[in-house]
Write a structure and sequence with these properties.
The protein is of the alpha/beta class. The protein has three domains: about 160 residues, Rossmann fold, CATH 3.40.50.300; about 60 residues, no CATH class; about 55 residues. About 55% of the residues lie in helices and about 10% in strands. The strands form two sheets. The chain has a five-stranded parallel β-sheet with strand order 2-3-6-1-7, with helices on both faces. A two-stranded antiparallel ribbon has the order 4-5. The longest helix is centred in the N-terminal third of the chain and has 22 residues. The radius of gyration is 27 Å and the shape is extended. The N and C termini lie far apart (about 60 Å).
């Protein structure tokens, strides 16, 4: 049986979440308006941390640099050098917090000069001498882990120089956010269908004892449904979503369809269009078509006509007729 507290959206849960997000947005505003030089936002994955930060920056029309994945100390220095007067968002780049040189660069980037200036001087020592950057921007770091680990003294100095915020919404709050997004409709998916997908993905997570994740809904379940709705899958969207939730191949529970013939025809259309673009004479085109498909010249003309028809918008096709 479903846990109705999380399966059913509660206005109170969403309102509580909105109150928490106000604080995060204000911390982002602090960096934007140079009242703070840095923000470290952390909490479990799939809770809208990155979305909240980036949407706040976008809504305020802020030009910012975004980096995610692995970043070396010299890479961090170059990033700061190229964006010396902008906000820099470091998303899930926890490796730099274990590197002494990178930590020293961050300390310099978020420090407060004694003269009251907003300009911070960042030095990077190389074999050819010191490189200097005068930085007036801000740093926002987003991570799943708290700011702890090796090099404790330096990390403590970072904590003293930047706002550190833990964001850990409840499962019920995340479910309420998922339903709120679904009820507004997702790109290419109606509110009714988005709501249906939301109910299913949350139900599957609860059945498996997993915590709900906004990322699972937005980045996996909705694309699974769109792929199915476009007629591009052999399996039903329910089975695709179950596979995404479990991160493995699952036993299919819904009817499948055969895409072999449809995919073959689509491939032939692409080949015909490519040949028409790359070969000038009909004999050359016919020979290349036969080499790649083994089919006749008349089949080439059929597939080429079909491919060109697909590329003409319906309105244009009517006007052309």
């Amino acid at each position: 049986m479903r846990n109705t507290e999380t399966a059913v959206p509660q206005n109170s849960h969403y309102e509580e979440l909105c109150e928490q997000l106000k604080l995060i947005r204000d911390r982002v505003r602090g960096v934007i308006h140079r009242h703070a030089n840095g923000l470290y936002l952390f909490g479990r994955a799939g809770t809208s941390k990155t979305y909240t930060v980036r949407s706040t920056l976008d809504k305020l029309g802020v030009s910012y640099a975004f980096a995610s994945g692995h970043l070396t100390p010299i890479g961090l220095f170059e990033l700061i050098s190229e964006n010396r007067d902008r906000v820099i968002v470091l998303d899930d780049i926890t490796s730099i917090f274990g590197q002494p040189i990178a930590l020293q660069l961050l300390l310099s980037a978020i420090g407060n000069p004694h003269n009251g200036s907003h300009t911070r001087t960042i030095r990077y020592k190389t074999a050819k001498g010191d490189r200097l950057v005068h930085f007036t921007g801000g740093i926002i770091a987003i991570a799943n882990l708290p700011l702890i680990g090796h090099h404790g003294a330096v990390l403590q100095a970072l904590r003293d120089r930047m706002n550190v915020v833990e964001y850990e919404p409840s499962d019920a709050q995340i479910c309420s956010l998922i339903f709120h997004l679904a009820d507004g409709g997702m790109p290419g998916v109606s509110p009714e269908n988005a709501r249906m997908v939301a109910e299913f993905v949350i139900g599957e997570a609860q059945r498996l004892g997993l915590r709900p994740s906004l990322r699972l809904f937005v980045d996996k379940a909705i694309p699974d449904y769109r792929l199915f709705a476009a007629g591009l899958t052999e399996t039903d969207w329910h089975d695709l979503v179950r596979s995404s939730v479990q991160q493995q191949v699952v036993a299919l529970e819904h009817p499948t369809k055969d895409l072999t013939r449809a995919e073959q025809m689509q491939a032939e259309r692409r080949i015909a269009l490519e040949i028409a673009s790359n070969f000038e004479t009909l004999p050359q085109r016919a020979a290349e078509w036969h080499r790649r498909t083994g089919k006749s010249q008349s089949a080439y003309f059929r597939r080429l006509a079909e491919s060109r028809q697909e590329s003409v918008p319906t309105g244009n096709a009517r006007r052309a007729g």
